[in-house]
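Box 4.2: Ligand-aware structure prediction
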Amino acid sequence: MKYDLHSHTTASDGELSPRALIIRAKAADVDVLAITDHDTLAAYREIDHSVLGSLTLIPGTELSTQWQRNNVHIVGLNVPLECSTFTEAIASQQRSRIERASIIADKLAKKGFTDLLPGVLEKAGKGSIGRPHFAQQLLEMGAVKSLEEAFKKYLGTGKIGDVKQIWPELDEVVGWIRDAGGTAVLAHPDKYHLTRSKLHRLADEFIAAGGEAIEVVSGKQDKVRTRELAKLSLEKNLLASCGSDFHQPGKFWAELGQQSPLPENCTPVWDRW
Ligand code: AMP
Ligand code: MN
Ligand code: MN
Ligand code: MN
């Protein structure tokens, strides 16, 4: 069975519609897929169940949090689609995204990029508004030559457009998922560039808050690193998850269903299901 438990659609910063994502996942022989758009469950409102065939869809979302001034992402799997408290939590994340977008726009205006917001809003459409939409707008205006450059200069970690104080604390967000009966997964542990001891501290606080799993495999990653993360999951008694973090076609390191299988010594998060 092939699992891909982390992916994005046009409901956040992905390029494919939920329908196109499902078709691509099936073509990649994925058996179980979680769509985990940033701070939204909107993709699940437009699933055409006739496209699914034998593919199993796990309701999910990727929630933004802050932990010790880091922007940490928590994937919620098997979250409820109809639960008023969880839906309200998601709605508050959406309000934070809109508020953050106007803060980012003000900050970039001070750098001379005035009136960014209308174009950014248009790019986000009905989806979760985020930094990639600012990057697209800066690229379209010719302010940068690539999306990568937009992050490197203006939007990435520590740059002027990196506004993370807006997010709720990690333990609060993990609590939302736990209380809603979902499984909280610490997403892509390597993206935070933490030292070993800080990653252990993050894992400990995540577990104390009710977190249950960690992405041992996130996209195409180094085999040695996979073994280290498997060891961490065993040490901390965390279940292991895996996902591509797919956003768009053409990125071989984050392609649907292409990540290597979980090491055999891990307990997969789906053993629970
Ligand atoms: P946000 O959700 O608004 O905080 O933006 C974070 C998203 O930006 C991530 O989920 C990625 O999709 C994207 N991203 C982060 N860093 C980069 C980068 N260096 N180049 C391109 N996209 C990036
Ligand atoms: Mn993203
Ligand atoms: Mn993420
Ligand atoms: Mn993601």
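In the box above, the bound molecule is adenosine monophosphate. The pocket of adenosine monophosphate (ligand 1) is lined by residues 13, 38, 130-132, 147-148, 151, 156, 247 (CB under 6 Å).
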